[in-house]
């Protein structure tokens, strides 16, 4: 059974000042099995981030369904989930990794990851152990653990973002332009991190500009062309 099914998804944005409506996405459909990685590609403005933010429920779609196989709630349509359900899913089942680092000031790298564990009701000891294991797993230098991340490089900030998201062990992880504005060496580090996530059995949805970055990385590629298409195992089918 698919862990995520997106059916005929559509989202419009209204500019009340100008009295206009802009269609961001329309007729988006795909599904994802547990442990798979689907990469969404397309030019800027094609609606890639809108899809991710609709799954995370930052946006509420105007049409369609997003069916998620939740451990707690069973098969749940995220477009109709209550605010209480959304809060729970964000804490325990669906993680979101942005290209930007938006964290509380005056908290160290270690404290930020520990806080993510504590939010799940774990003890201080468990939070400390799990935070250190995550930071080590994603190859953040121990010399950075007790420093403030505002001085980190783009690649280091991204790895911290991923550590904070994955330490909660979400069933589904959303990656929003994780390679944007990174140099080649940092992109390679990000690729290694994604390979580790895949090897651990994590289910992933990621959006990218660079389709070459995704070679041999994704199980499916969703191309945001004029007529969106799924490409899988070298076979191109209309979605």
Describe what you observe in this structure.
Helix content is 30%, strand content 31%. It has a single domain (2-238), classed as P-loop containing nucleotide triphosphate hydrolases (Rossmann fold, 3-Layer(aba) Sandwich), CATH 3.40.50.300. It has helices at 48-55, 83-92, 109-118, 124-137, 154-166, 184-199, and strands at 2-15, 20-33, 37-41, 63-70, 74-77, 94-98, 172-176, 203-208, 220-223, 229-232, 235-238. The protein is α/β, with parallel strands linked by helices. The protein has a seven-stranded mixed sheet with strand order 6-7-8-3-9-10-11, with helices on both faces. The protein has a four-stranded antiparallel sheet with strand order 2-1-4-5, covered by helices on one side. A hairpin with a 3-residue loop joins β4 (63-70) and β5.
| Proportion of residues in β-strands | 25-35%
CATH architecture: 3-Layer(aba) Sandwich
Enumerate the spans where pLDDT stays under 50 for 5 or more consecutive residues. 233-239
- CATH topology tier name: Rossmann fold
What does the average pLDDT come to? 87
Structural class: alpha/beta
**How many strands in all?**
11
Number of helices: 6
Overall number of structural domains = 1
Overall geometric form: globular
CATH homologous superfamily identity: P-loop containing nucleotide triphosphate hydrolases
Rg value: 18 Å
Quick one: CATH class?
Alpha Beta
Q: Biggest sheet, in brief?
A: 7 strands, mixed
Order of helices and strands: EEEHEEHEHHHEHEEEE
Strand order of the largest sheet: 6-7-8-3-9-10-11
Residues in helix, %: 25-40%
N- to C-terminal separation? Answer: 19 Å
Keywords: ATP-binding, Nucleotide-binding, Transport
InterPro entries: AAA+_ATPase, ABC_transporter-like_ATP-bd, ECF_ABC_transporter_ATP-bd, P-loop_NTPase
Family: Belongs to the ABC transporter superfamily.
GO molecular function, one term: ATP binding
């Amino acid at each position: 059974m698919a862990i995520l099914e997106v059916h005929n998804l559509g989202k419009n944005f209204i500019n009340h000042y100008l009295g206009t409506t802009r269609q961001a996405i329309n007729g988006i459909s795909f599904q994802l099995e547990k442990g798979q990685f689907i990469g969404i590609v397309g030019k800027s403005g094609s609606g890639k981030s809108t899809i991710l933010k609709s799954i995370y429920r930052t946006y509420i779609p105007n049409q369609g369904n997003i069916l998620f196989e939740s451990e707690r709630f069973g098969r749940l349509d995220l477009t109709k989930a209550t605010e209480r359900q959304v809060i729970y899913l964000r804490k325990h089942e669906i993680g979101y990794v942005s290209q930007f680092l938006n964290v509380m000031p005056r908290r160290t790298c270690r404290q930020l990851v520990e806080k993510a564990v504590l939010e799940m009701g774990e003890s201080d000891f468990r939070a400390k152990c799990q935070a250190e294991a995550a930071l080590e797993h994603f190859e953040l230098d121990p010399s950075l653990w007790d420093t403030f991340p505002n001085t980190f490089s783009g690649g280091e900030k991204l790895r911290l973002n991923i550590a904070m998201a994955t330490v909660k062990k979400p069933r589904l992880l959303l990656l929003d332009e994780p390679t944007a504005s990174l140099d080649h060496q940092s992109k390679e580090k990000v690729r290694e991190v994604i390979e580790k996530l895949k090897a651990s059995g994590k289910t992933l949805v990621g959006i990218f500009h660079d389709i070459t970055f995704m070679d041999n990385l994704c199980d499916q590629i969703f191309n945001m062309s004029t007529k969106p298409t799924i490409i899988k195992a070298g076979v191109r089918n209309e979605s």
